[in-house]
Structures are given as structure tokens and as C-alpha cells.
Design brief:
The chain is of the alpha+beta class and 171 residues long. The protein has five helices and seven strands. Helix 2 runs parallel beside helix 3 and helix 3 packs antiparallel against helix 5.
Length: 171
């Protein structure tokens, strides 16, 4: 996080398959989800979606957000989705959505989730780890012309929305 804040982290831009990144995150975290009786679901098509981006940072961001959803809930389902929000000749804006039903984040907690300063409390618990993951994911998203937002209906569902704008793959 400090490298991002000081401008010392550079993106490694190359051709990436966005759908493959999402499938990899699902596969990697499926055991962790299963241990908590969570079903990971996705409706991704199996074709490729090739764009120019930093695969490692996209995967790190998406994985961190899915990890948060897994940590904050038990006995539920988590749905991972992707849609194209805007497409031009030069770039594509994607929206990733992580929807988890179960123990939702309460409104008061939403206000502080993206701030890394909450780590100074000295209390290490699942929420502290989530705060750091969200702050890091938000910074990585912003580096790629994107954003992260969380919408919550307490005790019902939490929707994490991650947008990013990537250059189109040269043909």
C-alpha cells in the first residue's frame, strides 16, 4: 500500500484474459469458501476477453474483494459477475460485482472500510484485515482508472462493485 501511496508501484501492462483471471480467483478460493459452507457462483462465459492490463494487480484486487466476502459471512452464496459498462475504440470499462447474501456489512462500518488508518487501533480481527484489503484494492483500482463501492442491506446482502477501465487489445 505504501508503494502505491508514494507512486512507486508501476503497472505491468500486457494482454490479459479477464475471464481467466476471475475463474482463477474462484478456483483458488473455492476450498476456503467450502470450509465455511459458502457456494461460489459465477455466470462467466468460457470465451476469452482480452484487454491490456496488469494481470497480477487485477487478480490481487479481485481476490482481495472475494476474500472479504468469504470472511464476512457463513452458510451463504457468493455470486461473481462481470459486465461491460462502456466500450470505445480505445478502451473498455468493466464492472465486476461480488454479491454475497448473509451477514452484511452495516452502514456505520461502510464509512470506514476503505481507510487504512483504522489499522492503528491495535485490534486485529477479521474486520481489520478486510480494511487493509479494501484500502489496497481501492488504490489498485484507482491506478487502473477504476473505483470500488460497497452497498449493503444489513443482515441480507452486501454488493461489492469494482470498476476498471482497460485499453483494448490491439488487433
Amino acid at each position: 500500500l505504501s508503494k502505491i501511496q508514494t507512486g512507486k508501484l508501476e503497472l505491468n501492462i500486457h494482454t490479459v484474459d479477464i475471464n481467466a483471471i476471475i475463474r482463477h480467483v474462484c478456483f483458488t478460493l473455492s476450498n476456503k469458501a467450502t470450509e465455511k459452507n459458502i457456494i461460489l457462483q459465477t455466470d462467466l462465459e468460457y470465451q476469452t476477453l482480452l484487454l491490456q492490463g496488469d494481470a497480477a494487480r487485477l487478480q490481487q484486487c479481485f481476490s482481495g474483494l472475494v476474500n472479504i466476502a468469504i470472511k464476512l459471512t457463513d452458510n451463504c452464496s457468493i455470486h461473481l459477475g462481470k459486465s461491460i459498462m462502456k466500450q470505445t475504440a480505445q478502451s473498455t470499462q468493466l464492472q465486476f460485482e461480488i454479491l454475497h447474501r448473509g451477514n452484511a456489512v452495516h452502514a456505520a462500518a461502510l464509512l470506514r472500510l476503505f481507510e487504512p488508518t483504522v489499522l492503528g487501533t491495535g485490534k486485529l480481527n477479521k474486520y481489520t484485515t478486510n480494511d487493509l484489503n479494501l484500502a489496497l484494492s481501492k488504490a489498485l483500482a484507482q491506478m487502473q482508472e477504476g473505483s470500488i463501492a460497497i452497498h449493503s442491506l444489513p443482515d441480507h446482502e452486501t454488493r461489492i462493485v469494482f470498476t476498471v477501465t482497460l485499453a483494448n487489445n490491439p488487433t
